Amino acid sequence: MTMKGKINWRRAAAIAVLACGAGLLIFGCENKEHAPAAQNIKLACIIIDEDQFFHLVLFGMRDAAQQAGVELLEANSDNKPDKEIELVNTYVVRKVAAILISPLSAKGSVAALKLAYDQGIKILTYNTALDADFAAAHIECSPTYLGQQTGKAAREYIERNLGGKAKIAICAFKTAVPEQSNARTDGFKSEVGKLPGVEIVAEQDAWLPESAVKKVGDMLTAHPEVNIVYAANEGGTIGAVLAVKNAGKAGRITVFGTDCSEQLLQMLQADDNVLQAITSQRPVEIGRLAVERALKVIKGEPVEKETFLPGILLSRADLEGVKKFAAQFKEWTGQGTR
User: Which pLDDT belongs to residue 37?
Assistant: First the structure.
């Protein structure tokens, strides 16, 4: 997820208008009165990253599409606005019935998707929402609640082990997905902020492990009083754990995070006692629901406009629960015994 400078969404929107206009001239626009048979339905999924969250979303989507006997086209925007627009335009040309997308921006992604919607394509969002009302449905784990769940676990840890006092550093991802990052970090802060002895002393952006190792390391150097690190996503959490270990402060600094991966589950069970708790989303369920809702919308059936799923707290305080979840995780990722 490299971000080079500010995103010029006006330029991107103009490109979308020109590209979709060309698509209309060449291919025209269908307005079908009847829903197509299942074997003729094409759904398009756009993810934004190759991390395990999106792999598991795809697992759920593929499973639901296979069960329904429909075709699922898959693509990755790589967190690049121009590529997102290009993919949407491609799916307009291919006349898919619905686009299932995790938009890169609540506002910036609207133009291209609105043009697709205007041509009769159903739009469903997951993970991140649009600041528009034409999406038929939206599904996600509430980012605020994800942060609150981890924040509650951190607050209980601080009360139990640190006498209710802590100096906290935060590793966010506002540069990548500002709305989601802010919701998660605000949720975390709302819980730990219930303790008057807690202070947030540093906050930096880093969502990939490599950059998070450096950014968290820099924060620990600049603020040696830090004894808790919160990271708002998978890559940031991995990097935070590694930074604490690299600094030789395992046992003095603990980490709390959001999201889940095989590596994080291993870190949660490691003897170093650094990672204390993470809140996992429900990506497989999100993927399945997105496909199921899309098919209902295509058939003209009513669906819930918004669905917010709770996260799953995985804590070192409940290692048996972590082990059970890890076994299920291996099944989802194709590593378990079937």
Answer: 60
